[in-house]
Amino acid sequence: DSGDSVYELREWRPAVYRKCTDILWLLLFCLFWAGLMFVSGYAVVAGAAERLVLGYDSFGNICGRKNTPVEGANLSGLDMTNKKYVFFLNSCSLEIQSPKISSLSLCVSSCPQQQLNSLEDLQSFARNNGSFLCVYSLNVSSYTVNPKAAQLCPTLPVPPSKSFPLFNRCVPQNPECYSKYASVLISMVNEMDVFHRILSGILAGRDTVIGLSVLALAFSLILVLAFRFIQTLFIHTLIALVVFGLLFVSGVLWWLHYDYRNDPSTELETEKENVKFLLGYAIFSTIITVVLLSLIFVLRKRLPFSVQLFRIVGKIIGRIPFLLFQPLWTFLILIVFWVFWVAVLLSLGTAG
Predict the structure, then answer these.
(1) Confidence band (pLDDT; 50, 70, 90) for 112?
(2) pTM for the complete prediction?
(3) Which terms in the Gene Ontology molecular function aspect does this entry carry (predicted)?
(4) Residue 141 lies inside a defined structural domain of this protein
């Protein structure tokens, strides 16, 4: 009868008929990766990250590798394979000039670990250690007889210095000299643009980043195990932790902003920028907290459905136990991507 309502059951279709439903987002994702590969390729071709990592002298030679001659630069193109450390001839009185360090720098095979008080000490150090602390054009035998040795050799006395891992520079060990050396490096950071400051901040906080990554891995493993064994209790505990975490993070950010803003020692430009960043983070965190807490309050009656969903997830993990390793390889992939991202950022920072 045409007047009767006709109810049709939804036709069941096997998975073979499934198709991609997010073509637009797939295209955007492909465009993102294409752009990422383009930026990475440009960074590798145009950048010189090894100059930052390995260090370089005042004549265009990169320390720790064999160099090619630079047109118009004397003493360039030298083989520095065995000379891995950067040594400043005037390490205790470094100055910044437009915006480079004024002191000559050389590639040396080892840093002087004892104070050298005379040209004879420099000559003896070069002969005993094979590390020449005077300009390359000056022969070792001429250290004490060449009238220009005072200009071509480091300022006396040469303080003891030491190189640190991943920082192939001879850093003075004398406290007074070290403070001047460090102040120049800090002032160089202040002269950098925002891009370089972000990079230096990442490298300075690498231990914190790695520690938080390990902590995230541990929490991920706990989360997956909780899916399997304690579904009902876990959902309520998770919501409580989310609420507490949101309130705690927002409170800490506002407290840090208030503390930094009222700190009379906040004079460096980088510290003033930290105050602005903290304010932005605090506002953003507060907005996210309000939105998520509102969603939790509105959807509080749907918690039983979440418990059922977690039970299903627990059964799936019981059938496919290898899912327990999912956080581990996700963690490894993120570490690889983070290393790749920092390498590209280093190359971009040295491009041009």
Answers:
(1) very high
(2) 0.52
(3) transmembrane transporter activity
(4) yes
